[in-house]
Design brief:
The chain has helices at about 30-35, 60-65, 85-95, 110-120, 125-135, 145-150; strands at about 1-5, 10, 15-20, 20-25, 40-45, 70-75, 100-105. The longest helix is centred in the C-terminal third of the chain and has 13 residues, at about 110-120. α3 packs across α4 (about 110-120) and α5 (about 125-135) packs across α6 (about 145-150). The protein has about 150 residues and is of the alpha/beta class. The protein is globular. β1 (about 1-5) and β2 form a beta hairpin. The strands form 2 sheets. The chain has a 5-stranded mixed β-sheet with strand order 3-4-7-5-6, sandwiched between helices. A two-stranded antiparallel ribbon has the order 1-2. Helix content is about 40%, strand content about 20%.
Length: about 150
């Protein structure tokens, strides 16, 4: 989880949900090198810029990701929630290959968006719910919608 220390953020851990996806709270630019060293090939930001004062911008994380040799995508999920375009963008990033690290303020939005994107790609809803739960996230309330998305894939 990211810990705010004044205006600086450091990431304490990446939470692996499946072999292809991990989530985290807000990361700092220096966490990109750590992600690359751990075998991640991409970072996805699900946090809008300027959500809170002092958080690193997506541009700063993107630059650090590029410097570490990682792909970077910014798919911000704000107060309006997740829409179909967000799901499609996340699904495309997942399809581009992994493992990927997705982050937001706490990892919850990233987990929710991953769950929806995985289901939209035909993923098993029960397996998605179980993977999220193993990482400490409860997406069980989305299970009926996850099944619906998977059935349309």
């Amino acid at each position: 989880m990211a810990i705010a220390r004044g205006r600086r953020y450091t990431c304490a851990m990446f939470i692996r949900l499946t072999p292809d996806i991990a989530v985290a709270a807000q990361i700092a630019p220096e966490d990109c090198a750590a992600a690359a060293a751990q075998g991640y090939v991409a970072i996805i930001s699900n946090r809008p810029d300027d959500e809170v004062p002092g958080q690193p911008s997506a541009a700063k994380i993107g630059a650090a990701a590029a410097e570490a040799g990682l792909r970077f995508a910014h798919i911000p999920v704000g107060p309006a929630g997740i829409d179909e375009a967000d799901i499609a963008a996340m699904a495309a990033e997942l399809a581009a290959g992994g493992p990927v690290l997705a982050y937001c303020r706490s990892g919850t939005r990233s987990t929710n968006l991953w769950a929806l994107a995985a289901a939209s790609r035909g993923g098993d809803a029960d397996a998605i719910v179980a993977a999220a739960a193993a990482g400490g996230y409860d997406v069980s309330g989305m299970a009926p919608f996850l099944r619906s998305l998977a059935a349309r894939a």
